[in-house]
Design brief:
By secondary structure, the protein is α+β, with helices and mostly antiparallel strands. Helix content is 41%, strand content 24%.
C-alpha cells in the first residue's frame, strides 16, 4: 500500500508539473501587478527551472532544446481545439554550465506567439489565425508553421486542456481568490456559439470550478486584454497548487487519485516518464535571471501590424508581419538576436 501510494504521489507530482508548465509560462511573460498577488505568492518560476534541467540531464549536454507548449479550452467548451496559448520554450546550456555542471549556466528564452496571427495553412493553402491550425490540420501542421515562423526546430510538445482547472477546483471544493478589479464581460462564450454575461465584483471571492474557469478565460474586461487573462491564469494555478499540495495523502487518497486521472486525461505530451521525472526532481536549478521573456506582438516588438480580413463568412481582426504576409524574416532575426544576446 505504501509503495502504491508513493507511486501515485510521484505520478501526480509529474503531471502537476506539466500542468503548471502550460499555465505559468504565459503568465510569467508579463508584469503582474502587486494587487493581483496574494501576500504569500512567491516570485519563483519553477517550470522554467524544470525545463532547463532537461537539457543538462540528457547525454549530450551541449544540445539546445525547444519545447512547444499549447493550451486549448478542451472538449465541451466553445472553440475546444483553438490553441489560444502558443509558447515555444528555447533552452540551452552555456559554456560555463558545460564546465561546472548543472544549474550554473543554463538559460531559457520564452517565445510567445499571438493567437490572432494570420498565417497560410500548410498543405492546404488559404489563410487562417494560427490558433486554428491545430483544429484544421493537427499538431504536425501547427509545429511546421511555428518552425517556419521562428526558425527553431521543435523537439517536444505539451498540450493541455484549460478545462482541467474547473475539474480539479471542484475536486478540492473551490479556491479563495483576490479579484483586483470588477469584471463585466458581456461577450463571454456560451453554448452553441452564443454569448453570455460574466460578472464578478472585486475583492476576495470563493470560486467554484465553473466560475474559476470563466475567470481565467475572460478577455474583454481590462485594458491589457490577453495579458491580464494570463495573470489571472497564474494566480489561479498558484492557489490551486497550494491547495492540492496541502491535502493529506492518506485521508485524501481518493481525491489524489481523481486529480491524477483528471490531469492524465487532459494532458498530451511526447515527453517520456524518465524525462518528466527529471524535470520534477531538478525544479530548483535554473537561475531566474537567465530567463528571457519574448512576446511577439505589435506593442512590444513593432514587428506586426493589424487589420481585418474575411475568414470564411466572418470578418475577423488579425495581425501579420509588418514585412509582409508570410514574411517572417524580421521575426526570425529578432528571435535570434535575443537568444544570442542573453
Amino acid at each position: 500500500m505504501l509503495k502504491f501510494l508513493k507511486t501515485i504521489g510521484l505520478a501526480l507530482s509529474i503531471l502537476i508539473g506539466l500542468f503548471f508548465l502550460i499555465q505559468l509560462i504565459p503568465a510569467s511573460s508579463i508584469e503582474i501587478s502587486s494587487e493581483i498577488e496574494e501576500p504569500e505568492m512567491r516570485k519563483e518560476i519553477t517550470i522554467f527551472k524544470t525545463l532547463a534541467s532537461l537539457v543538462l540531464n540528457e547525454k549530450n549536454k551541449s544540445t539546445e532544446k525547444n519545447i512547444l507548449v499549447l493550451g486549448r479550452p478542451g472538449k465541451g467548451y466553445s472553440g475546444e481545439n483553438l490553441t489560444d496559448t502558443i509558447i515555444l520554450v528555447h533552452l540551452e546550456p552555456t559554456k560555463e554550465s558545460a564546465k561546472s555542471g548543472p544549474a550554473s549556466g543554463e538559460k531559457a528564452t520564452l517565445i510567445s506567439l499571438p493567437r490572432d496571427l494570420l498565417v497560410k495553412i500548410p498543405y492546404q493553402g488559404g489563410l487562417t489565425k494560427i490558433n486554428s491550425l491545430y483544429n484544421l490540420i493537427g499538431l504536425e501542421g501547427l509545429k511546421e508553421k511555428i518552425e517556419e515562423i521562428t526558425d527553431l526546430s521543435i523537439d517536444h510538445y505539451v498540450l493541455i486542456d484549460l478545462a482541467v482547472v474547473k475539474e480539479i477546483i471542484e475536486l478540492v471544493d473551490g479556491v479563495n481568490v483576490y479579484v483586483p478589479q470588477d469584471i463585466d464581460d458581456p461577450y463571454f462564450p456560451g453554448p452553441n456559439y452564443t454569448y453570455q454575461a460574466f460578472v464578478l465584483k472585486a475583492g476576495w471571492r470563493y470560486l467554484d470550478g465553473q466560475t474559476a474557469l470563466k475567470y481565467i478565460r475572460t478577455r474583454y474586461t481590462s485594458p491589457n486584454g490577453d495579458f491580464d487573462r494570463m495573470a489571472r491564469q497564474q494566480q489561479i494555478i498558484r492557489l490551486l497548487k497550494q491547495k492540492v499540495l496541502t491535502l493529506n495523502p492518506l485521508w485524501n487518497f481518493s481525491t489524489y487519485l481523481k486529480i491524477f486521472n483528471t490531469l492524465k486525461s487532459h494532458i498530451q505530451t511526447d515527453l517520456g516518464l524518465i524525462e518528466m521525472k527529471s524535470l520534477y526532481q531538478t525544479a530548483q536549478e535554473l537561475d531566474t535571471n537567465r530567463i528571457t521573456h519574448l512576446v511577439i506582438d505589435k506593442k512590444r516588438t513593432d514587428l506586426l501590424i493589424g487589420g481585418q480580413v474575411m475568414l470564411g463568412q466572418q470578418l475577423a481582426s488579425v495581425i501579420y508581419p509588418k514585412a509582409g504576409q508570410e514574411d517572417y524574416s524580421e521575426i526570425r532575426e529578432y528571435i535570434q538576436e535575443t537568444i544570442s544576446n542573453e
